[in-house]
Amino acid sequence: MVSVHEHVIELPKRIVIGSGVLKSVGKIFRDLQLGEPILIVTGPHVVKMYADLLIGSLEEAGYREIYTFIARDATRATAENAVTAAKEYKVKTIIGFGGGKSIDVAKYTAHVANSAFVSIPTAASHDGIASPFASLKGISRPYSVKARTPIAIIADTKIIAKAPRRLLIAGAGDLIAKLTAVRDWRLAHRLKGEYYGEYAASLALLSAKHVIKYASIIRHGGEEAARIVVEGLISSGVAMCIAGSTRPASGSEHLFSHALDMLAPKPALHGEQVALGTIMMMYLHGGNWRAVRATMKRLGLPVTAKELGIEDSIIIKALTIAHKIRPERYTILGESGLTWEAAEKLARITKVIE
Ligand SMILES: [Zn+2]
Description:
The chain has about 350 residues and is of the alpha/beta class. The protein has helices at about 25-30, 45-60, 75-90, 100-115, 155-160, 165-175, 180-190, 200-215, 215-220, 225-245, 250-265, 270-285, 290-300, 305-310, 310-325, 340-350; strands at about 15-20, 40, 65-70, 95-100, 115-120, 135, 145, 150-155. Strand 4 (about 95-100), helix 4 and strand 5 form a beta-alpha-beta unit.
C-alpha cells in the first residue's frame, strides 16, 4: 500500500530584499491590500532608530490607524499582552519589526488574534524571520511552535548591515545547521517512516551551501553579506513552509542548543550554539565535521566551548539530555541519547572541549 502524505503549503506572498526597501513598505501593503488597523510589534531600540521611517511610509500610502507595541522580551507573558492590544484595537495586520524577539512575539500574536503577519527583520540572526514557527519563553516547550506564515517579508539590507556583525555571523551559523538537520530528517524517514520532503530538504541544504561558498564575504559584514545571509534565512524559512514543520531546518544540533539554553547561566546566540552542535552531530553522522569546523572558523564563529563562553561540563550535560527535549523528533541521538562518557568523547574528538 502506498501512503500519500498530504498537507497544505502556505507560502509568503511577497518577499522584498534590498537596500532601503523600508521606505516601500506602504506601497507593498497597498499592493497586497493589507488592512488596518496595523499593530507594529517592535523593540525599544529599533523603535527609536527606525519607527519614524516605517510609520512614515505607511502614512504616505494612506494608512492612518497605526499602533505600536514594545516587546522587551519574547516571553509568553509579553506575547499575551500583545494579543490583548491586538484584540482591543481590532488589528487586521501585525508587523514584526526588529530582531528575533519582536518577530517571534508578532508572529504568535498574529496567529492568536487571527490577523495577517508581516515580517520586517532589522537583523539576520536566525531563520525565524521567515518561518511560520515562533519560539517563546514560558510556553511548555523550549522549541518553536506553529504560528503564522508571514504574508510578506521585507528585508532592508541597509538596516540589517548596520546591526552588530555578531548577529549576522550567527545567522550564517543557523544555516550551517541545516547540514545535520537534513541528515537527521532523512534518518527519521528511513528508521521511523517519517514523512520526508526531498524538495524542502534540498532547499534547506542549498541555504547552507550558499553560506559555505560565501563565508569569506559574510565574515566581513556589510550589505552584500547581509543580503547573502538574509536570502539563505528566507530560503530556510520557505523550506519549513513547504515541509509544514521545522524538520528541514532543525535537528539534533538544535536540540543540543535548546539544552544549552536550559542549562547555561549565560547562553550564547542561537546561531552560534546550533553551529557548534553541527560539528558534533556531523561527527556522529559520519560526515565531514572537519569541513564544518573549517567553514565556521572562516566565518568567525566560535568552534570551542571556551570561545562560546560555556563551561565544558555544561556542553557535555547538554549532549546527554538533548534527546529528551523533543522525544517525537527522532535524530542521530536516538531514543536513549548519549552517556556522559560518550558525550565527553564526542566533544573532545571534535575539539569542542580540550
Ligand atoms: Zn535555528
